[in-house]
Amino acid sequence: MLNHGPMLLVLGVAPSLAVATTLEPWFPLPHICRGPEALGGRSADSLNSPAGRELVSKEGYRRARHVVGEIRRTAQAAAALNRGDYRAFGRLMVESHHSLRDDYEVSCPELDQLVEAALSAPGVYGSRMTGGGFGGCTVTLLEASAAPRVMQHVQEQYSGTATFYLSQAADGAKVLHL
Fold first, then answer.
1. Where is the GHMP kinase C-terminal domain (predicted)?
2. DSSP letters of 115-174?
3. For 88-110, how does the pLDDT look when each residue is reduced to its tens digit (9 = 90+)?
């Protein structure tokens, strides 16, 4: 394992069987996703006004707030990575997780526990759930030299059995000419 630069730690959780009902409550926003014309010419940000909040249910408002916030966080995260500001990127990861948990309501206790365990370990910049929700994985950005200690700490704090996958950050997907 390399001991320099940031690394990613991925932890998995089995999807919840409680999701066997319907996903409709988590996706009540088709009118918001169709664009400003669906909101009477207003932007999704306008939902923050009292008049905007009347356009959707309380649940719909929370879902929309997550979507709008996630778009904003994504742009901020890209800028943070371009600056090499891993602390700022980590804070955005945590904000995203809290929004997925509280506004979009797609996290589960196991994922929340993994995120909190990772965040309580020295050397961790940020952590969040990833995937479709209701189980899945967390992604944690950490200092490479902290990886063994973080994995031990998470396993000690987590009530289940964690599976760890370490990866170094890379430039992303690209075509390889073989």
1. 78-159
2. HHHHHTSTTEEEEEEESSSSSEEEEEEEEGGGHHHHHHHHHHH-SS---EEEEE--S---
3. 999 999 999 999 999 999 999 99
